[in-house]
Structure formats: structure tokens, C-alpha cells
UniProtKB/TrEMBL annotation:
Protein name as annotated: Type 1 glutamine amidotransferase
Domain Glutamine amidotransferase residues, every copy: 63-205
Pfam annotation, one family: GATase
InterPro entries tied to this protein: ChyE-like (IPR044992), Class_I_gatase-like (IPR029062), GATASE (IPR017926)
Keyword field contains Transferase: yes
Extent of Basic and acidic residues compositional bias: 14-24
Source superkingdom: Bacteria
Organism: Muricoccus nepalensis
GO molecular-function terms, A-Z: transferase activity
Upper taxonomic lineage: Bacteria, Pseudomonadati, Pseudomonadota, Alphaproteobacteria, Acetobacterales
The entry's keywords: Glutamine amidotransferase, Transferase
Cellular component aspect of the GO annotation: cytosol
Chain positions covered by the region annotation Disordered: 1-28
């Protein structure tokens, strides 16, 4: 059997990438690679940065050689007409045209939405920081393989300021919550299929803690914390739970359960994407 080939598309700016590396030692794409290799150790994984000027983004034919394309989170706002956003959207349109299954976390969902003709905006109900709470599947989502294994309601790691306002034609809302109506979706566009979530199934808890510290001023402006000490206290609890995920007292203080504390449960959408979409297409293309 031919090994699965995964392409991770990172859209951090060089400055944001270095800030992230300073706090957690990895860029968003490098974290994604680590998670995918843990799920499918034999997979051949590659990292590209299609939003960067001068970067060699693969075209449609090269993308067809991949079995799955993964879009990371990003500080880019896809409703802003910048060269970086235009390059990222052009890449995503090529992904759709290639027919290779694709998956996106957080901004990855927003990129796919905008590339296919939907709309993204700043989150009208404020930021989600650390956790997206009480996510529930829609009627379509309850039967969709992306969410297989999720309970009736669940929490997930999340940190975002933008949201999907309207999915494009060919889009289906699979889950939402009180903050963002689109927390999970499928988009079918120009022969390609995308599954995505507004949260972060690829992240470990300590990286969310670090993100809180990096965005402390924004959290204070949003009224989510009174001062940096409050942000640091919350981040410290999350870091402690990362080190000792079986600590029930820490989970209780943070109000989370095994949907958050167990790595396999956090990653359920990634695992479902690989098993229910990537592997069947891999076989259909004669690579098994």
C-alpha cells in the first residue's frame, strides 16, 4: 500500500511565526505536522507557505499527488484585500480544483469559505478564547462522519476573532454554538470536498495557553480578563492540565471533560477526515 501523502498549508506571517516559535517552539504548520505524524506515523508530510511572497505554492496537478491538504490557523483576516490573503485564496481554489480532500482548522475554515464564495466577518459576539463551549451538531451534522464520536454537546480548544458569516453554495453547516453559528462545516466546490472546524483539533493544551499570553491585551480589551495576571492565571491552569491530563481537579476548575483533556478525543475530526474521506479517495485513485 502506498503511504498517505499529506500537505500542510501554513499562512502565518514570518513575524507571527517567529513569535509563536518563541513561545511554544513550533509554528502552526509544524504543530500540524507533529499531530498528523502521531495519528498516521507512516504518512509522508510536507509543509508549504502559499501566502508568503515568493513561496512556491503547488499548482493543481501537484496537489492531485497529495492525499490530503490541511490548512492551519492564521492571524490573516480573509475579508481584507491584501497580497497574502489573495495568494492564500488562490491556493485554496486550486485545492478545490484538484479534487484532493482538504481540512481546515479555525482560519482554515474561513479561507475555504471565502475561496468558494462565502463570507467571513469579525465575530459579532466577541472572541472565543481557550475553549469553544457547548458546541452542538445540526441535523445534518448528527449524521455526518466528520463528527462521528462526538457527544450531543462538547467543548473544544479554540481561539479566534473572526467567524463564518455565510457559507458558499455547496456548503453545509454541521455544528455551531452560542458564539459562532458555524463551528463545523462541509464545503463542496468545483469538484473538491472540504471539511473544517472553527476550533483546533490539532493543538495540545499548552499551545492554547501560550496563545492566551500572546493575546493578553486583546483579551483584556474584550472584557475576558481584567489584567495580564488574570490571563496568566488561566493560562497556567491550562498548562498544568496539559502536563497532568488526568487531574480531575484542574478539569473541574476549567469546566472541561475528556473531550478536551484526551488527545484522541480532541483530534476526533482529524481522525474522521483521514478515515472517512482521505483513505477512500486514496483507494479510488489506485494508490492502495
Amino acid at each position: 500500500m502506498t503511504a498517505l501523502r499529506f500537505l500542510v498549508a501554513e499562512s502565518e506571517t514570518p513575524e507571527d511565526r517567529e513569535r509563536r516559535r518563541e513561545s511554544v517552539g513550533r509554528s502552526s504548520g509544524e504543530t500540524y505536522l507533529d499531530t498528523l505524524r502521531a495519528i498516521v506515523p507512516e504518512a509522508v508530510c510536507e509543509l508549504v507557505r502559499p501566502a508568503e511572497e515568493g513561496a512556491a505554492a503547488p499548482g493543481v496537478e501537484a496537489l492531485r499527488e497529495q492525499d490530503g491538504v490541511f490548512l492551519t490557523g492564521s492571524p490573516l483576516h480573509v475579508y481584507e484585500d491584501t497580497p497574502e490573503v489573495r495568494r492564500q485564496l488562490r491556493f485554496m481554489r486550486d485545492v478545490f480544483r484538484s479534487g484532493t480532500p482538504s481540512f481546515g482548522s479555525c482560519a482554515g475554515l474561513q479561507v475555504a469559505t471565502a475561496a468558494a464564495g462565502g463570507r467571513v466577518r469579525e465575530n459579532r459576539r466577541g472572541h472565543e478564547a481557550a475553549f469553544a463551549r457547548r458546541i452542538t451538531a445540526t441535523e445534518a451534522g448528527r449524521e455526518h462522519p466528520l463528527l462521528a464520536g462526538r457527544p450531543a454537546a462538547w467543548d473544544a480548544l479554540a481561539i479566534h476573532t473572526d467567524e463564518v458569516e455565510r457559507l458558499p453554495e455547496g456548503g453545509t453547516v454541521l455544528a455551531g454554538n452560542g458564539v459562532s453559528a458555524v463551528q463545523a462545516a462541509e464545503i463542496r466546490h468545483e469538484g473538491g470536498t472540504f471539511w473544517g472546524v472553527q476550533y483546533h483539533p490539532e493543538l495540545p493544551l499548552d499551545e492554547v495557553a501560550a496563545a492566551l499570553r500572546r493575546q493578553a491585551k486583546d483579551l483584556m480589551e474584550q472584557g475576558l480578563a481584567r489584567d495580564e495576571a488574570a490571563v496568566d492565571a488561566q493560562a497556567s491552569l491550562i498548562e498544568a492540565l496539559h502536563r497532568e491530563p488526568e487531574r480531575r481537579d484542574l478539569a473541574w476548575r476549567l469546566g472541561v471533560d475528556r473531550q478536551v483533556t484526551c488527545a484522541a478525543q480532541r483530534q476526533v475530526e482529524l481522525r474522521n477526515f483521514i478515515e472517512h474521506l482521505v483513505r477512500p479517495v486514496h483507494r479510488a485513485r489506485g494508490r492502495a
